[in-house]
Here is the input.
Amino acid sequence: MSKYTLPDLEYDFGALEPHISGQIMQLHHDKHHAAYVKKANETLEKLDEARDKSDFTRIGGLEKALAFNLSGHVLHSLFWRNMTPKGGGRPKGELANAITRDFGSFDGFQKQITEVAGTIMGSGWGALVWDATSSRLMTVQIHDHHSHTVQGVVPLLVVDAWEHAWYLQYLNEKTKFFDAIWNLWNWDDVAARFASARALDLGLNGVTDRANGGDAKGAGKTRQAPQPPAGRA
Here is the structure.
C-alpha cells in the first residue's frame, strides 16, 4: 500500500523571516504537518483492516479521521509551495486578469481573502479557489482542514489560520500575520495551479463557461455534458 509522505521544504526554516520565524516553520512542518501525515497513514491501515475483517462498525469515525488528517496534509503541502523567500508583489498575466475580473481589483481580492481567513471561528484556512462549475475564482473558508468546503473547487492559494501558524510570533494579533504573508506569496506557483485548474471539466450540463466569454450572470456559452457514443445507452 502506498503511503503519504511529508514533503521537504524548498527553503530553509529561517528563509521566510522576518515575516514567519524559523522556530514557527520548524514546529509547523516537522511536528504539526508530520502528525497529519502519520495519522492519515494510520487511518488508511485501519480502513484496510476493517475491509479484511468485514467489520465496518467504525467506518464513520475512520472516514472523518481520514478527511481531517489527509486534508491537513494536502493544505499544508500547498501552503509551503505557495510561499517563497523574497516573494510577494502581485501576480501577472492571466491570473492577474482573472483576479481583476472576479474580484474587481487586486486590492479587493486582498482585502476579501484576508477577511476570510481572519473571521474563521476557531481553526481553519482561507483559500483562493477555482470553481470548475462556473469557471471563476472564489474565496472560501475551510473550517479545521475539511469542513464547509465547496465541492468541485480546486485550491490555488491557502492561508493557514490555525494558531500554531502564527501564535509564537504574533501572539493575539493574528491579523498582523495575515498582513505579513503577502510579502511571501509565490505567484508563479499560484499561476501554475491556476493554469492546471482551468483545464478541469466536471462534465455538468448547463454550466456557464465564463472563461470563454460568459459573464457573472450566466450569459454566454455553456458546456454540455459529454454524450455517449452512438448505439450505447
